[in-house]
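A.,

Following up on our hallway conversation. Structure tokens first:
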């Protein structure tokens, strides 16, 4: 059976591979959306912090013999702590200034981090083996699906759902949202708003590091992996709506699938289809698909 002249097997294979890419887009854009939506910071260092998560997993295994599962927990904690340090020492000084200052600062942080990793590790990729528990593949009939890629989709969607639920449906999430809109009122209830802001930024950074560890066995770990992906992720956030948690998740998954299908019907356009969609969305809905009009 063919679909527009494309064998069904090839079509479904690209659909699933697009879902895997969409899972990375979703969890990375989720971190960006959390930081922007709750703190109003355009975090351009997100790609570099994602790269740090992957390198931490590689260094943990190479130098300390810490396996994938340990680093899947440890790397986000380490990078989350580093993110809180960045927020307290640098970003907290810029909240009363224009958003451009925060963007320039995080862009500078990104360049510093990438430069350091480039000087120590070069630009060639470092391999990272798939954990033994997730090695092998499953025969779905129409394709052979690597078990690790299935795990990436399950883990990403689980983290995305839990994050959305906490922010949108719990008391803690209501404090976070209220703290960004009216911090004085929230402080009157005894909530330490600056500390809450610090932990929020740290959590957004931890999401980037978590995505980096997930990506480590799928792609070659290199100092350029963050800069190669961050532009696409920013496009996903813009399409979904800056600061929209649900918009980032759904748009990331949808665009990953669209990118995969484009590889089937028009391979030359697969690297630009996300940006074409962004242009169209910005023309007709400048706030994004799920964003609120000002």
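Then the amino acids I'd put at each of the 294 positions:
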């Amino acid at each position: 059976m063919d679909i527009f002249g494309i064998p069904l097997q090839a079509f479904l294979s690209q659909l699933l591979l697009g879902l895997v890419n969409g899972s990375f887009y979703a969890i990375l854009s989720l971190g960006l959306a959390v930081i922007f939506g709750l703190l109003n910071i355009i975090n351009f260092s997100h790609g570099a912090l994602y790269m740090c998560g992957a390198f931490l997993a590689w260094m943990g295994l190479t130098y300390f013999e810490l396996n994938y599962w340990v680093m899947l927990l440890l790397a986000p904690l380490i990078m989350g702590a580093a993110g809180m340090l960045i927020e307290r020492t640098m970003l907290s000084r810029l909240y009363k200034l224009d958003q451009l200052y925060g963007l320039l600062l995080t862009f500078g942080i990104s360049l510093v981090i990438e430069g350091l990793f480039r000087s120590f590790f070069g630009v060639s990729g470092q391999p990272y083996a798939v954990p033994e528990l997730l090695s092998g593949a499953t025969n779905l009939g129409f394709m052979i699906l690597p078990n690790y890629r299935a795990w990436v989709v399950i883990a990403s969607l689980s983290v995305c759902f839990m994050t959305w639920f906490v922010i949108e449906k719990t008391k803690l999430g209501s404090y976070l949202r209220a703290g960004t809109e009216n911090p004085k009122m929230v402080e009157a209830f005894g909530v330490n708003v600056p500390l809450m802001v610090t932990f929020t930024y740290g959590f957004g950074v931890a999401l980037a590091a978590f995505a980096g560890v997930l990506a480590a066995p799928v792609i070659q770990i290199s100092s350029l992996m963050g800069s190669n992906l961050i532009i696409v992720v920013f496009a996903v956030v813009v399409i979904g709506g800056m600061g929209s948690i649900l918009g980032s998740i759904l748009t990331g998954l949808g665009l990953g699938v669209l990118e995969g299908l484009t590889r089937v019907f028009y391979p030359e356009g697969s690297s630009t289809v996300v940006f074409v969609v962004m242009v169209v969305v910005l023309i007709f809905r400048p706030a994004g698909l799920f964003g609120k009009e000002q």
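The mean pLDDT is 87. Curious whether your intuition agrees with the design.

B.
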